[in-house]
């Protein structure tokens, strides 16, 4: 049967090495595999990562190298320097921006998690009439993009006297975090056996005790997924922070790099890239610890 | 877990206080549980959505409340070539970027679905463009597209010698438009690829084996097995992608700010420019409201895809 399959596929030049690897189907010759699989994959990885490499290279190059491609090979750093990073940390308000961004992201994440856990529990476990419609409405809320909300929200923020305050961001970020987290947590709660809660009910636990002692401990992976995802989304948020914050010291990192570091006609590319690199680092580190949670929350939210 | 107010467990069960009983009364509990989420979403999502539609029919400016002017804003926009250019570019940007993202993303997902060494590492690396703040990677693209020091130009002109002059990526209309689309595709591939990979992994390998025994070609296996089984998840991911590409703001704002001569404005950036930077809130709101029909269309698409999925798999929703 193996021979018949190989003949059908027509690739027979380097079939021998695959014979001892059971997981490779026999039409997969090695040479073919390199051309069809590894080469495109390498190109994909190269293209997807190159901007980061370029960012890092630019951030640590002295200005002399940065603008002289004739004498120095632009792909490599000849004499690395921390000048741009030093300038960024000590001559701009960068640490302050990092702190603001961190505060806003953490507060918005906790606020959203709190609201989402309760809402997801109510929709999935308390089961009232119309609970599926509430779930659907929350899902639809996720489809409302910030781009059509920022103008009316700006007027609201002005009226509430929150303009230029990080509180405005903490209160508005949940508009896109809560729908996502709720949707994710509904899926997680669904996977917890209802029998556990029934047992607890028979034992006389109250609903809130059940939520705190049984459902939440079992949903910890879901909570982590939702939490890190919310943190990343709030860290990356741009349009609200651009529209609601004016004073330099209250700006978040993405906004401040674009509005404070880009000044005049001559762009300080070294400092800009150092700022982008440092601004990406927290989420990148965070991400490297929780890759699997990111993947599961990303795919989980879509699959639900 | 914290051990705070709730009555502790003991042999003789203590009679719970009226507060505990109130919180165990289901209707009350439902209201309390839904209150934070529904409250937040009503105040900061539903109300602004309505307010935005209302603003579009007034002449509000920043710091001055407006009065009803009917369709004046829309009538003005109808006459405005910049608005039509933004509508055209939004649709064009979404169409081209979506096709690019899904073609490349599906290809990448199919590659990743093979048996690979370091698979989880590769998957982790591939998600990077999606994790990093868009504005920051957009700034990197801005630098890559620099007219004088673009690394792409350097490779083409000085290393490969394929061209005489450096590329002018952002200086004129169409190159700038396609440069932005390329950056958007770059950012969107990981999301599409990882989601579709999750879909691919649910397809049972036995289907492929059966098709193989029946003599199906690779192309037939792809079109008759992979695509139909991937369709439900593809439809959902595509809806999300279309909505968030159409309303994209960050990439364009960071790289070109709508230039050169307003040719790369998307509707969202034009709304920002008119509404916030130009202080004409009502006009900005009118532009933002004009996006809603497109979004409703995409949402309906999502809804019917979901319904179809349920019907296909024959399972109840919960």
UniProtKB/TrEMBL annotation, chain A:
<dbReference type="InterPro" id="IPR050901">
    <property type="entry name" value="BP-dep_ABC_trans_perm"/>
</dbReference>
<protein>
    <submittedName>
        <fullName>Carbohydrate ABC transporter permease</fullName>
    </submittedName>
</protein>
<keyword id="KW-0472">Membrane</keyword>
<keyword id="KW-0812">Transmembrane</keyword>
<dbReference type="Pfam" id="PF00528">
    <property type="entry name" value="BPD_transp_1"/>
</dbReference>
<feature type="transmembrane region" description="Helical">
    <location>
        <begin position="133"/>
        <end position="155"/>
    </location>
</feature>
<dbReference type="InterPro" id="IPR000515">
    <property type="entry name" value="MetI-like"/>
</dbReference>
<feature type="transmembrane region" description="Helical">
    <location>
        <begin position="35"/>
        <end position="56"/>
    </location>
</feature>
<feature type="transmembrane region" description="Helical">
    <location>
        <begin position="266"/>
        <end position="290"/>
    </location>
</feature>
<keyword id="KW-1003">Cell membrane</keyword>
<keyword id="KW-0813">Transport</keyword>
<feature type="transmembrane region" description="Helical">
    <location>
        <begin position="167"/>
        <end position="189"/>
    </location>
</feature>
<feature type="transmembrane region" description="Helical">
    <location>
        <begin position="97"/>
        <end position="121"/>
    </location>
</feature>
<keyword id="KW-1133">Transmembrane helix</keyword>
<comment type="similarity">
    <text>Belongs to the binding-protein-dependent transport system permease family.</text>
</comment>
<dbReference type="InterPro" id="IPR035906">
    <property type="entry name" value="MetI-like_sf"/>
</dbReference>
<feature type="transmembrane region" description="Helical">
    <location>
        <begin position="210"/>
        <end position="233"/>
    </location>
</feature>
<feature type="domain" description="ABC transmembrane type-1">
    <location>
        <begin position="98"/>
        <end position="290"/>
    </location>
</feature>
From TrEMBL, chain B:
<dbReference type="InterPro" id="IPR000515">
    <property type="entry name" value="MetI-like"/>
</dbReference>
<comment type="similarity">
    <text>Belongs to the binding-protein-dependent transport system permease family.</text>
</comment>
<keyword id="KW-1133">Transmembrane helix</keyword>
<feature type="transmembrane region" description="Helical">
    <location>
        <begin position="185"/>
        <end position="204"/>
    </location>
</feature>
<feature type="transmembrane region" description="Helical">
    <location>
        <begin position="124"/>
        <end position="145"/>
    </location>
</feature>
<keyword id="KW-0472">Membrane</keyword>
<dbReference type="Pfam" id="PF00528">
    <property type="entry name" value="BPD_transp_1"/>
</dbReference>
<feature type="transmembrane region" description="Helical">
    <location>
        <begin position="225"/>
        <end position="246"/>
    </location>
</feature>
<keyword id="KW-0812">Transmembrane</keyword>
<protein>
    <submittedName>
        <fullName>Sugar ABC transporter permease</fullName>
    </submittedName>
</protein>
<feature type="domain" description="ABC transmembrane type-1">
    <location>
        <begin position="87"/>
        <end position="304"/>
    </location>
</feature>
<feature type="transmembrane region" description="Helical">
    <location>
        <begin position="28"/>
        <end position="57"/>
    </location>
</feature>
<keyword id="KW-1003">Cell membrane</keyword>
<keyword id="KW-0813">Transport</keyword>
<feature type="transmembrane region" description="Helical">
    <location>
        <begin position="285"/>
        <end position="306"/>
    </location>
</feature>
<dbReference type="InterPro" id="IPR035906">
    <property type="entry name" value="MetI-like_sf"/>
</dbReference>
<feature type="transmembrane region" description="Helical">
    <location>
        <begin position="86"/>
        <end position="112"/>
    </location>
</feature>
């Amino acid at each position: 049967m193996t021979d018949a399959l190989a003949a059908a596929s027509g690739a027979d030049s380097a079939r021998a090495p695959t014979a001892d690897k059971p997981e490779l189907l026999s039409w997969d010759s090695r040479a073919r595999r390199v051309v069809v699989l590894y080469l495109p994959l390498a190109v994909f990885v190269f293209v997807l990562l190159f901007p980061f490499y370029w960012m890092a290279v630019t951030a640590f190059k002295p200005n002399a190298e940065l603008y002289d491609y004739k004498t120095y090979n632009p792909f490599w750093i000849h004499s690395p320097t921390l000048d741009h990073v030093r300038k960024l940390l000590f001559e701009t308000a960068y640490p302050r921006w990092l702190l603001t961004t961190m505060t806003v992201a953490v507060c918005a994440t906790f606020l959203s998690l709190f609201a989402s856990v309760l809402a997801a529990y109510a929709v999935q476990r308390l089961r009232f009439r119309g609970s599926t419609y509430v779930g659907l409405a929350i899902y639809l809320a996720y489809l409302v993009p910030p781009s059509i909300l920022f103008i009316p929200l700006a007027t609201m923020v002005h009226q509430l006297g929150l303009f230029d305050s990080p509180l405005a961001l903490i209160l508005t970020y949940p508009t896109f975090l809560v729908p996502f987290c709720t949707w994710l947590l509904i899926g997680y709660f669904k996977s917890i056996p209802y029998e556990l809660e029934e047992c607890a009910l028979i034992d006389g636990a109250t609903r809130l005790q059940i939520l705190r002692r049984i459902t939440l401990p079992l949903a910890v992976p879901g909570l982590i997924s939702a939490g890190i995802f919310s943190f990343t989304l709030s860290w990356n948020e741009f349009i609200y922070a651009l529209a609601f914050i004016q004073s330099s010291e209250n700006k978040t990192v993405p906004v401040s790099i674009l509005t404070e570091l880009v000044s005049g006609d001559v762009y300080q590319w070294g400092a800009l890239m150092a700022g982008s690199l440092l601004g990406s680092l927290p989420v990148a580190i965070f991400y490297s610890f929780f890759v699997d949670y990111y993947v599961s929350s990303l795919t989980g939210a879509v699959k639900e | 877990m914290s051990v705070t107010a709730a009555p502790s467990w003991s042999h003789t069960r203590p009679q719970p206080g009226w507060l505990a009983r109130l919180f165990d009364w289901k209707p009350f509990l439902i209201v309390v549980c839904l209150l934070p989420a529904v409250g937040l979403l009503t105040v900061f999502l539903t109300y602004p959505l309505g307010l935005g539609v209302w603003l579009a029919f007034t002449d509000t400016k920043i710091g001055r409340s407006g009065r009803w002017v009917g369709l004046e804003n829309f009538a003005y926009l109808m006459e405005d070539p910049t608005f039509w250019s933004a509508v055209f570019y939004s649709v064009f940007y979404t169409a081209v970027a979506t096709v690019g993202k899904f073609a490349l993303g599906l290809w990448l997902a199919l590659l990743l679905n093979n048996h690979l060494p370091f698979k989880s590492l590769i998957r982790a690396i591939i998600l990077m463009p999606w994790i990093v703040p868009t504005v920051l990677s957009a700034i990197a693209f801005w630098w890559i597209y620099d007219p004088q020091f673009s690394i792409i130009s350097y490779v083409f002109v000085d290393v490969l010698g394929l061209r005489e002059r450096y590329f002018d990526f952002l200086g004129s209309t169409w190159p700038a438009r396609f440069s932005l689309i390329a950056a958007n595709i770059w950012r969107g591939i990981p999301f599409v690829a990882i989601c579709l990979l999750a879909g691919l992994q649910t397809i049972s390998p036995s289907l492929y084996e059966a098709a193989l025994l029946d003599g199906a070609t690779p192309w037939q296996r792809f079109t008759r097995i992979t695509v139909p089984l991937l369709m439900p998840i593809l439809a959902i991911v595509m809806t999300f992608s279309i909505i968030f590409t159409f309303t994209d703001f960050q990439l364009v704002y960071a790289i070109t700010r709508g230039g050169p001569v307003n040719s790369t404005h998307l509707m969202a950036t034009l709304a920002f420019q008119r509404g916030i930077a130009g202080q004409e809130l009502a006009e900005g709101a009118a532009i933002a409201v004009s996006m809603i029909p497109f979004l409703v269309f995409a949402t309906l698409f999502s809804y019917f895809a979901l319904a179809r999925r349920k019907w296909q798999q024959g399972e109840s929703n919960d």
